[in-house]
Structure formats: C-alpha cells, structure tokens
Design goal:
about 190 residues; 5-stranded antiparallel beta sheet; about 40% helix; alpha+beta
Length: about 190
C-alpha cells in the first residue's frame, strides 16, 4: 500500500491515472472526483500547504460568478463534466502556489459590531467577541482577498472571500465599522 505525504501528492497521482482511483468510466468523471475528494475528509493524510481544505473557499473568490455555497455543482453545470475535471486541477495548481499575506490592518479600539448571534433558536442575542485587529489578507499571487480577524491566541478568516481590496474594506466597515482612514499598509 502506498502512503502519500499529503493530499496534493495523492491528487497528483489521481490526475495522472484517474481510472485507477476513480474507476474506469471511459472519460474523466468530475462527479467521481468530487466524491473522492469528499471522502478524503475521513482519511488520515496531511492537508498540505496551503491547507487543501481551503481550496473550495478560495475557488469561489477566484472564479467570477461561482456560487460560494456549491462550487462543485457550479463547475459541473457551467463547464460540463470533463472541462470541470480539467479546471479543478488547473485551479488546484494555482492554489498550491498561494501564500496568505496581510496587506493592511486596522486596530479595533472603540469599535462595536454591527451584528449579533444566537447559540440556539430560543436563546437571546449575544454580542460577538471583538478582534484586536482586522487585516486585509490576500492569497498571493492570486487576486483573492479576505478579511482576517485577529483575536488573542487565534486568527479567523471571514468567508466568503472577495475579489478586491475595496470589497474587503467594505466588509470590515459593515461588520466592525472600520473607516477608510483607520487602515495602514504593512
């Protein structure tokens, strides 16, 4: 039995010999690929760098018009089975070159959230924890951006990802009331 160092090594092997991993259907099957990828969540294999599990989120920011909730369905409907199969690997290759980079940041001092949450349907509204700062981050070199909220001891990427720095600034303004003047470049 072959052991793979990470998911990327396994997917490289699958791309070279899809019939061996997905079954011999006579053509490239995007549906079988999606099922295979979904099953990887139950396998003990390293997620790689960047983390493979962020790929489906990244792709929704990378491809214009793609549904942020059902990217695989969108690919299959928009591109068809075989083209979606090929595009999956082209986009995966691009994603693998990406590194998260913080471009600008704003320190949150007196900021209040514009939203609340509930732990359950019958519980009261709760005020979310306020981050120490927010960052405009980029999956460089791609044109995919996101709001990174920095808390004591952890960071959280806010999804959905955006296609421009201005969209991330607007998101920070709508969530934490961050004004344009509060951003400073790193």
């Amino acid at each position: 039995m072959k052991y793979y160092k990470d998911i990327y090594e396994l997917l490289d092997a699958l791309q070279k010999r899809p019939a061996m991993y997905l079954g011999n259907t006579g053509k490239k099957s995007f549906a079988a690929l999606v099922a295979f990828v979904s099953a990887l969540g139950f396998v003990e294999v390293d997620a790689g760098d960047p983390c493979f599990w962020g790929f489906s989120r990244w792709i929704t920011g990378r491809v214009y018009g793609m549904s942020p909730t059902l990217p695989w369905d969108w690919m299959n409907e928009e591109w068809g089975n075989e083209q979606a199969f090929d595009q999956f690997f082209e986009l995966l290759d691009e994603y693998r070159t990406c590194k998260s980079v913080c471009l600008s940041r704003a320190v949150l001092r007196e900021h209040e959230p514009t939203f609340y949450y509930q732990e359950s349907m019958d519980s009261e509204l709760l005020t979310p924890e306020k981050p120490l700062e927010v960052c405009i981050a980029q999956f460089a070199p791609s044109e995919v951006y996101y709001l990174l909220e920095v808390y004591v001891g952890r960071q959280e990427e806010y999804f959905p990802y955006q296609k421009s720095i201005d969209e991330v600034k607007e998101l920070a303004k709508s969530r934490w009331r961050v004004s344009e003047e509060e951003w400073f470049d790193l």
